[in-house]
Structures are given as structure tokens and as C-alpha cells.
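Q: Two folds, back to back.
A: First:
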Amino acid sequence: MLHTTPPQSQTTPTSLPRPPNQNIKTMKQDIPRLPAPPAPSPTRRPKTRGLLRPPRRTNAFVWCAAFACVIFSILLILAGIATLIVFLVIKPRHPSFETTAASLNSIYLDTPEYFNGDLTFLANFSNPNHKMDVQFEYLNIELYFSDRLIATQSLQPFAQRRGEARLEAVHMISSEVYLPLKLSMELQKQVQSNRVQYNIRGTFRVRANLGLSHFSYWLYGRCQIELTGPPSGVLVARSCSTKR
């Protein structure tokens, strides 16, 4: 038997597939390129120069001034405490002012509205303190009829020891003082009834001495007096008060 080999089948060459790298390259060429993102801005580092500097030393003058202020504050507090203790121990009282006697010498009306008058009275100043001396540095006394000023007089300063009283004769003269018609008629009425009323107002500046220290204050005296008619008018009633 003869063996025959089958004839080989003839195959036509077909197109082989492209390698994958070539396909990827083609795809990359087809994809549009996106713009590159902006580069991040560099961050600024905080400045640390001030933190690295050593602390400054306080000036010696500042320390001296602070020490002086502390010493002054302590002395001021001690002075206040000492003054309070002195006040509690001594218990200071202000002097008093009053009128002990008076003489109405004349009242004359030149015209119905112009007044002339002459009045003398004794002013009594007393210092009720037993451990403190006082000094009157300023003294001014005014005379009023009703609420109208008709005379004024200033006195010389003087000093008063503790528990001392002093009498001062005060002469008040009124010359051509204008009075409203209503007050002029009221004055004539009081003269006819033998009862004339005046108001005395005193303004004083007093200095109190406490050993090495002292303090000053204003004092106000008020007296309402009633006298008989001139020419020999005498004091028949009075009401006095003294306030700071």
C-alpha cells in the first residue's frame, strides 16, 4: 500500500495585530494635553527676630521713681492715720460768734429812699477748744436791714488761745444808702413802734493749730438783733448761730 501525504493547505497571509505599545502611543497622541497646574506659591516664614532678642533691662531711674512713689504713699497714709487719731483725741470744735450788747445811736432818712444810720455793738469771739489754739486770719462783718446791705466793716486779724474769749467793738455807719420805698416805709414803722430789727452777718477765715500741723476753714456767723429806737436804742433781743 502506498502512503500518500495529504497535500499541505495553502494559507493566505493575513494582517497581524499591532503591538500594544504602538496602540498606546497612538492613543496618547489622540488625548488632548491639559494645561499644567500653577506652581504653589512659596509660604513666607514668620519673622522671629523680635522673639530672639533678649529682654531689655529696666532703667535704674524708673526703679528709683517707683521706690519714691511707694515711700510717698506710705507717708501719706501714715499722716492720714495720725490726723484721724489727733481728731479723735482732741475733738476740735469751731469758734463761736455772737453779739452781747448793742447801741442804736441814730437813724436818719435824708429822703424817703436814702438811709443814714449809726450802730455800735460788741462782737464776742470765743474758742471752746481746750487743747487747740486758733487764729482769725480774715474778718468781715456786714449789717443788713431785711435783706438789704446797709453797712460793712473789716476787723484786724488776731489769735486766740484755747478756752479764750475776746470782745471786739464794731462801729457800723451807713451813709446815703439807697433803700427801696417799701423797705424805707418798713423802717419808719419799726422806729415808731420802738422795735428796730437788724441782721448781722460775719465771714471769717480761721486757722487751727495742732502742734506742728494746722488746717484752715471758713466760718459764718449770723445774728438777728432787735433794739429800741434811737438815739439811745439798746439791745432787747438777739439770736445768733455760727456754722462752717
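A: Second:
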Amino acid sequence: MSDRETGLVYLITGGCGFLGRHLLQVLLEKEDKLREIRLFDKHIDPTLREHNTDVQVVVTAGDITDYASVLEVSRGVDVFIHAASLVDVWHRVPEHVINAVNVQGTENVIKACVENGIQYLVYTSSMEVVGPNVKGDSFVRGNEDTPYNVYHTMPYPKSKAKAEKIVLEANGTKVNGGACLHTCSLRPTGIYGEQHQLMKDFYQNGVRTGGWLFQGVPSETEHGRVYAGNVAWMHLLAARALREHPDTVGGEAYFCYDDSPYKSYEDFNMQFLSAFGFREVRVPLIVLWFLAFFNDLMRWILKPVCNYTPLLNRYTLAVACTSFTVCTDKALRHFQYSPLYDWDQCRMRTQKWVDTFPLESKKAT
């Protein structure tokens, strides 16, 4: 029998989302022992079934908070990639909803793995399980063992930290059939690339202000960024390593990294948005702090009548002003990770997509 007939079945929660699309593409291109990919998502895109290989791609609508749905879609799965997550640092989503998706959903995944005898689980975590914190403590060229004052105030990083703890503590759990569950966690820094909604949001802000982008984050601030295709590639390598070297990789957490330059969020995004002729306007940082405070105040005042949740608030400004970069080779040492795409390729692929924004805006109108 061929590898395709005897190959692996992968399940990706959040499979129709930003990272999920990159995971699908990398798996189809780089995983030889592959028979089926299941994409499980609350908001599905049926077109993701369309590809030019003989791998079966199954798109299933479902809610990660519904255990029966998670259990059913994971029957017969070999490798579980749990990428579904509710990301919110703008107070748009109630805390109990974030916890239901990110924490309860992860508990459902673990239970389904145990009941269905699944042995390999890769969890998509976040750098925010560590930081940056709102106290402004920098994390510069840190690694997985670097001490840091972890201090969470928003529901999203709190929920991701809880979920990651659940996943890592589940490593070694007995599953039906007598085998063990092997787990690991990947912590991307700021992901970017094709289909990244936040990049579109920044573009729309520039359009609304007539091409002016107001910036005030200190120029020396730097953040780690990582291309979505390289994050997906690391997931594939981690999944392989869990199967081949579970004693090394199981129970471990890894930062996701590549060759993308360290810059502030503002300067990094402008590398792509400058193509539209947007003009930067530097404003004193104190002005941004006042605007962030004002936005938080208005959100509280307007809460009974509407959901006022702009991108700028005190939390997002604190994060933007706090350096957080990683310098590690743990993934290289443990499972031979090196970026699938170099910086020039990442920049070119992202820019090609960003250049379509004006066309999409015209279609929308």
C-alpha cells in the first residue's frame, strides 16, 4: 500500500482561520505521509477543500466548546493540532466567552484525545503566556528559560496561560488503547502574513485618516515577529518529533521564531503599508497615553448602549511600548527546525497580499 493509503490523519481546530490556512498549505506541500486533513472551525470556508493533491481535505463546522462535536470530529485522528483560539485584547468579547473557547475548549481537546486514543497533540499557544506585561518589563533576546515577571491583566493572556498549562500537564496521560498522549506547545511571537486581519485593520485606519498614521511608540522598542508559514512549518516538525522522539519533545514549550527583523509593531507594519503612500505623524507618547485612557473611559461610558472597542487602549499601548524579542535555538536542537521561508520570501509573499487591499476596498463599496 502507498503512503497515501496508509498515511496520517491530521485534525486542525481553527482550520479555516489565519494560521489554519497556512497549516493546511504547509501540510499539503511538505508532509509526505498524509492521507487526510480535517479542518474544524466555527466559521467554515468550503473552498479550502479545493487543492491539487490526492489528500482528502474535510471541512467540518463545529464549536470547540461543544465536547460532542470535538469528540466526533477527532475519531480516527493520528495527529491533533489545536490552533483554535479566541484572541481579544480590545474588550470586544466577554471574559467568560474567552475562557469557554480557550480553556474549556482545550479541556475538551484533551478529553477527546484520551477517549479516541490519540497520541500526539501540538498546541498553538502564544508569547503572551509570558508577556509583555503592562508594567513595561522588557524581554530582550530571551529564551524559554529566561526569568521574567509574568503579569497578566487581560482575559486573553490569562486564558492562554491556563490552556498551555493544561496541555503540558497532559503529557504522558494514558489514552484508550493503552498508549500515552504526547503533547507540546508552540508560542508564536507576533504572527504576520497573508490573511492577517490586523494588518487589514491598520490599513483601514490609514484610509479613514486620509493617509495619516499617528505613531508615538519609542523608536528603540522592538518586538519579535514571525511569518505564519514558518509557524505552520514548526507545527509540522513538532508533530513529527512527537511521533519519533516523544521523550525529548513531550511536555515542552517552544517559542516560534524566524529571520524577520526586530522592530516596533508600528515600524514593522509600515514596511508593508508604505506602499500606499501613508505618511507617519510622530506624536508625543503622552498624547497616545491620553488617547488610550480616553478610549477606555469612553468604552466604559458607552458600554450600556454600544460596544466601543478601538485598537488603541491602555493595554495595547503598554504592549506596543514594551520590547519583547526572543533569541533561542531550542526548536532547532529538539527537532531540527529552521525557517521554511527566509525574510525576503516572507516579505515578498506578505507584500503581494497587502497590495490587494485597495482592490478589496473597491469591491466592498
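Q: And?
A: The first helix runs from residue 3 to 6.
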